[in-house]
Amino acid sequence: MMQWEKLLNSGRFDPAKKKNVQLDAYRSEFEIDYDRIIFSAPFRNLQDKTQVFPLPEHDFVHTRLTHSLEVSSVGRSLGKSVGEYLLDKYPTLSQIGIQSSDIGAIVAAASLTHDIGNPPYGHAGEEAISDFFKHHEYGYIWQSHVKINEWADLCNFEGNAQGFRMLVSQNNGLKLSYATLAAFTKYPRPSQVFEKDKKRRSHKKFGFFVDQVNDYTHLANVLGLIKSNTDCWLRHPLAFLVEAADDICYSIIDLEDGCTLGLVSFQEICGLLAEILGEKFKPEKLDKYKTQTQKLAILRAMTIGKLVDEAVVAFCQKEEEMLTGDFDKALTDIIPSAKALEKISLLSVEKIYRSKPVLEKEAAGFQVLEGLLEVFSKALNHKFYQTELFSGRDKSILRLLPDDFPLEGWGEKVNAYPLLRALIDFISGMTDKYALALYRKVKGIALPGA
């Protein structure tokens, strides 16, 4: 059984950190996590990464940045409420200096980073990277140069695992606290699992690539996380709150964006949210607000508040089962509003996620990311493997890679997996606009300055 005293360890994932470092007098370690994330370049880049819709000229819709900020806000509320419950149930937590605000800060910081590993063009970007290695000539060509589990990583790009990689990278990782990193990791397993349990929510996706297994093992050992089977661990309990914050926000806010763009009617939204609000839904009170935007904002706030309350109750009921691993479901699947959220999900798929603007954005994402991967992958293959084909064009292409890209220092044998991981780091870290601009340049569609 996991222990909260260990799970809330404020130590940092920073092997170079010296002992007896003076603590910040004004911020807890978990508040420092939050601030580091806010000021980081990967987080800032989320402002130009698609959430669901391409950005229209007039009506504001959410980007990955605004979505992440909102998820973090909801996460803080969930964490602080749960924190009050945990401090009352486990008095030793107060004795070691834990406050409810600390738990709120952990969930807020982890929620802030939950999409930090997502590539350009949303989930279509994830699929485009995976498909390149599965199907493209200059993606599939690498299979013979990597191990089986490394190939599984390349053929199944996962934003959650990419996020973990970014957060713990020895070069530019944010050196967050152990507790925040574990709360971030909703899927504590590698890509290739021989004992995958479909009934466990934490096995649905994967949370770290094969070259980060040792990093997560170290994290798990520090926090006392329990293994469920080979290379799979039980979730940190606060990861359930991070997941719930995300589920609550995208369910309600994607619906709001859909209404803003005219894909879902205001009447449909009222009917769906009324099922969640119950007696709190007072349509006559909406009449005092003049605009539909104001009415949507009120309904959204009330609905999110109700869902937060339900999720906190569900967490407190299942907390002991989380510590033993007997509970492994999404909190939003067991709350009273679960059926209403399922209806929202079905409508969102039909009218929002399959709408023309979204499908056009996804099609563009496939084209752009496949094109970038093809050009750079081909040049790298020619430089290190099919050297007789290495051309002046390839040389020019490779000069566009970042200065810290590992082109040198390999010796006689080039390790293809870290080489390709570095390429994916470069491309998945791009913003939507930068990816499109670079694609046009490397394909000769647009010249620099044109």
UniProtKB/TrEMBL annotation:
Q: Which Gene3D superfamilies match?
A: eoxyguanosinetriphosphate triphosphohydrolase domain-like, Hypothetical protein af1432, putative deoxyguanosinetriphosphate triphosphohydrolase like domain
Asked if the Swiss-Prot or TrEMBL record annotates the protein with the keyword Zinc, the reply is no
Q: Which GO terms describe its biological process?
A: dGTP catabolic process
Q: Which InterPro entries match?
A: dGTP_triP_hydro_central_sf, dGTP_triphosphohydrolase_C, dGTPase, dGTPase-like, HD/PDEase_dom, HD_domain, PHydrolase_assoc_dom
Keywords in alphabetical order: Hydrolase
Query: Which GO-annotated molecular functions does the record name?
Result: dGTPase activity
- Fetch the Pfam families from UniProt: HD, HD_assoc
- Residues in the signal sequence: none
Where do the HD domain residues begin and end?
64-251
Name-wise, this protein is dGTPase
Q: Which organism is it from?
A: Aquiflexum balticum DSM 16537
Supply the source organism's classification: Bacteria, Pseudomonadati, Bacteroidota, Cytophagia, Cytophagales
